[in-house]
Design goal:
The complex is a heterotrimer. Helices cover about 40% and strands about 20% of the residues of chain A. Chain C has one domain: P-loop containing nucleotide triphosphate hydrolases (Rossmann fold, 3-Layer(aba) Sandwich). Chain C has eleven helices and ten strands. A six-stranded mixed beta sheet of chain C has the order 6-7-8-3-9-10, sandwiched between helices. A four-stranded antiparallel beta sheet of chain C has the order 2-1-4-5, with helices on one face. In chain C, helix 3 runs parallel beside helix 5 and helix 5 runs parallel beside helix 6. Classes of the chains: A alpha/beta, B mainly alpha, C alpha/beta. Chains B and C meet through helix 7 and helix 8 of B and helix 2, helix 3, helix 4 and helix 5 of C.
């Protein structure tokens, strides 16, 4: 599912003294198959943007215009696959089934008595017919397995008895159980310790290579973006300032710093090397950095 | 973002906004008393006049003030309709079964509607011009004498203050949980009553757990900052009376006197 | 003088197994100690024991030679301030200055003095111009700075930060670390920083690693990161830069261990020229 957004704007509490413009003429295309990063500070508009992707936030109704007059050049447009979200009548249920969304700290949205029931929640909501116990169990088993958990071990447990990292994985299983084609995650690794962080990122790559064609992560961890993403968009004050592959994005160190954003460690090292006359043409993943740095030694032992 | 801490506060700098919240609370009480003391249209006219001056001085737009009335318009119309149909009087215009429309009924209904509109308007004026935080401070200060009868004034004020701090957080959280469950296909809008009540469970349970967790952490944070109840506690903020408050006070006094005089000399509306 | 001395401390949440047992730990006056450990290693229990929010089941805890007992509880709490993890769950008031005043009010500080302390605390966290702001409208980093200011208003000599940066974005984390460093250097406040961000531990004078309620490693941050194989067994990882050093060394590039980007660049240049 290709995502095309053009001229999106959004204002919270419009026409009140507290009106805040969260999105300001945002245009962005995310191709099917990408591992896409969305960067920016709290309040930069990134969360507002992703909530449009499964219709949790809707475009403001478009101005009425005569049938004959051509569409205005700046008319907002939002296409998610074949779903046209500019239309008032969109099948939101079908859309949400195919665009999964994992919110920040998703473990705080667990509610059921057992892990099994919680994971099955979305499955039951989205299926058109009543599922048999076997069908449900099969889907839940597979979802738990893809997030790296053993069905027989945790299915009957209360989700609240699990550790923090496990809770988060159960919560993710509860979203991917319907096998969405697009998976959007807001700060999937926030608050976890280094081990938990690594596990979650591995899990996302596993999902990307199996069930979810497109993965979109919202993050402010530059290293995470550099290591994992095919492209990343930088949001600031409701606008998209950059939309580039990490290898190019993090060459704009000055601009990013001006926006109050960091650059990944590898980019910092490359800059420090450049100042010392060593140019390293690296895509800012750790692997590439190590390889290219070691290559500098040439034949030397 | 929902900002209960601001309530329906309308943030403009004005004479009324700057008044001491205690005075505004007392003024509201005085005003309500005046409305109920007013026994004829002249009395209500005086009240309306005073309210009009207050609205002008507060710089809250009239549209905003009217919106508060719009919220209860059904209640007002319903009350009016009942009175029009059931009020017994001498000049009967129309009757059908137990229903009867009389001149007296129409006048009384009009009187009642005016009263209700004034009531709603004056209370919303308080919330338009005073932040809930200031209201809490004002209430605590006004209730201080009750400490003598061991009424837990400080605890009550603290609870209100914490509630003001946390209600917006919990409302945001509700929104977030609701969105998360919607993203998992939860449907809160369709189905019968039972289905809808059941649909709330996936919101309610995470919300309750979160509220308990927050309460627990807040308790620790309060402990860590040496909270020991009201014993030996000092208070940083003191509300201060200014010339504005004095001026407004005289207005209030004049209002009550006026209404009482009208009641004594002009009698009932009907 | 020891700022904090824990001797043979035992603690359990009443489920049988001890969270801490025969636990010994001292913090010197003026020191900046980082306590590292994965989630569930017992490091947050430590924070809550230090100022009596949790009561130990055995052993002794002393704060500047005052033994922590029921009678000295509030004396100890005035000396040891704790800042917690969630920026939203530590403020009681809606307005910044009202919240900072809370602690000082609790201990019966006179009004004028509370005003002075609010000035001091807001200055120390760099938020003078936000004195009358609404807490709800602040960023995460600003909320945590309000929490620090609220603790500072009690004039503590020790400040414990219990994963206070875990829920913040990088900018918020930097804000907090700047404030903490300044408090330690300029106000001479003893700091115990509990964290799982390895990068933050680099700033400390001393780091300890906890695992299953025990201190398993101790030394300067550089010492600790030197023993990286051991760190991995406690579910911890080197800071990213340390890991890169090790990878380069393993690839045959003899860079010296460093936790500073400029220094590493220099090392790489030295090795290739």
């Amino acid at each position: 599912m290709r995502i095309v957004a053009e001229h999106l704007s959004y204002t919270y509490q419009p026409k009140s003294p507290f009106a805040t413009r969260a999105l300001d003429d945002v245009s962005l295309t995310i191709e099917e198959g990408e591992f896409f990063g969305i960067l920016g500070h709290t309040g930069s508009g990134k969360s507002t943007f992703v909530q449009h992707l499964n219709g949790l936030l809707r475009l403001p109704p478009s101005r009425k215009r005569g049938k004959k007059s051509p569409p205005a050049p700046n008319e907002p447009k939002l296409l998610v696959g074949e779903f046209d979200l500019t239309q008032k009548k969109t099948d939101l249920r079908a859309l949400r089934r195919r665009v999964g969304m994992v919110f920040q700290y998703p473990e705080y949205q667990l509610f059921a008595e057992t892990v099994k029931e919680d994971v099955a929640f979305g499955l039951k909501n989205f299926s058109d017919k009543k599922l048999t116990a076997e069908e449900t169990e099969k889907a839940v088993r597979e979802a738990l397995s893809v997030v790296g958990m053993e069905y027989d071990e945790v299915a009957e447990k209360s989700p609240f008895d699990l550790s923090g990292g496990q809770k988060r994985r159960v919560a993710i299983a509860g979203v991917v159980v319907t096998r969405p084609e697009v998976l959007v995650l807001d700060e999937p690794a926030a608050g976890l310790d280094p081990l938990g962080k690594r596990e979650v990122m591995e899990l996302l790559h596993r999902l990307h290579s199996t069930w979810c064609k497109t993965v979109i992560i919202v993050s402010h961890d530059m290293d995470e973006i550099a290591e994992n993403c095919t492209r990343a968009a930088v949001f600031a004050e409701g606008k998209v300032r950059f939309c580039l592959p990490p290898a190019e994005l993090f060459r704009h160190a000055e601009e990013l710093t001006e926006l109050g954003l960091d650059i990944p460690l590898t980019a910092k090292l490359c800059r420090a090397l450049e100042r010392r006359g060593v140019v390293l043409d690296c895509d800012f993943t750790t692997e590439d950095f190590i390889r290219k740095t070691l290559a500098l030694m040439g034949g030397k032992p | 973002m929902k900002d209960v801490a601001f309530g329906q506060y309308y943030p403009v700098p004005s004479f009324v906004h700057r008044l001491d919240p205690r005075l505004k609370l007392l003024f509201l009480i005085a005003f309500i008393v005046a409305i109920f003391l007013a026994s004829n249209f002249y009395g209500l006219a005086v009240c309306a006049g005073v309210l009009l001056v207050a609205i002008l001085f507060s710089r809250v737009p009239f549209g905003k003030v009217l919106r508060a009335v719009r919220g209860v318009v059904f209640l007002i119309l319903f009350t009016a309709a009942l009175n029009v149909l059931f009020y017994r009087g001498e000049t009967v215009y129309w009757s059908w079964g137990i229903f009867q429309v009389t001149e007296e009924g129409l006048i009384f209904s009009a009187f009642l509607v005016t009263r209700l509109v004034l009531l709603v308007t004056c209370s919303s004026m308080l919330t338009y011009t005073t932040t809930p935080v200031a209201l809490t401070d004002g209430l605590e200060s006004l209730l201080t004498p009750l400490k003598w009868i061991r009424f837990p004034v400080h605890e009550l004020a603290l609870i209100m203050s914490i509630a003001l701090r946390f209600i917006p957080i919990l409302m945001d959280e509700t929104e977030r949980i609701k969105n998360a469950q919607k993203a998992r296909g939860a449907d809160f809008e369709s189905g019968g009553l039972i289905k809808r009540v059941r649909a709330i469970v996936p919101i309610l349970i995470p919300l309750l757990l979160s509220a308990f967790r927050r309460a627990d952490e807040l308790g620790d944070a309060m402990d860590a900052r040496c909270y020991m109840g009201s014993k030996n506690r000092t208070k940083y903020k003191k509300l201060r009376f200014t010339w504005r408050d004095l001026l407004a006070f005289f207005w209030g006094a004049a209002l009550i006197t006026g209404v009482v005089l009208l009641r004594v000399y002009m009698g009932a509306p009907v | 003088m020891h700022a904090i001395e824990m001797k043979d401390v035992a603690f359990s949440y009443g489920e049988g197994a001890f969270r801490l047992n025969k636990f010994n730990f001292t913090v010197e006056e003026g020191e900046f100690v980082a306590v590292l450990g994965h989630n569930g290693s017992g490091k947050s229990t430590l924070a809550r024991l230090m100022n009596g929010i949790l009561a130990a089941d055995g052993g002794e805890i002393r704060v500047f030679d005052t033994l922590l007992t029921d009678d000295t509880l509030y004396d100890v709490r005035r000396q040891v301030g704790v800042v917690f993890q969630n920026p939203d769950n530590q403020t009681v008031a809606s307005i910044v200055e009202d919240d900072i005043a809370f602690g000082a009010e609790n201990v019966g500080t006179p009004r004028e003095e509370i005003g002075r302390r609010i000035d001091f605390a807001l200055g120390a966290v760099g938020m003078r111009d936000l004195r009358t702001a609404m807490v709800a409208r602040l960023s995460g980093g600003q909320k945590q700075r309000v929490a620090i200011a609220g603790v500072l208003a009690l004039k503590p000599r020790v400040m414990v930060l219990d994963e206070s940066t875990a829920m913040l974005d990088p900018r918020g984390r930097r804000e907090i670390m700047d404030v903490v460093l300044r408090l330690n250097r300029e106000e001479k406040i003893t700091v115990v920083l509990i964290t799982h961000f390895m990068e933050e531990a680099l700033l400390a004078d001393r780091a300890v690693v906890m695992n299953r309620g025990e201190i398993v490693m101790e030394g300067t941050p550089a010492d600790i990161f030197e023993r990286h194989e051991e760190l991995v067994t406690y579910n911890l990882a080197l800071p990213r830069i340390g890991a890169i050093c090790k990878r380069l060394q393993a690839g045959g590039m003899p860079v010296a261990d460093t936790l500073d980007a400029e220094k590493l660049a220099e090392e790489i240049v030295r090795c290739v020229s």
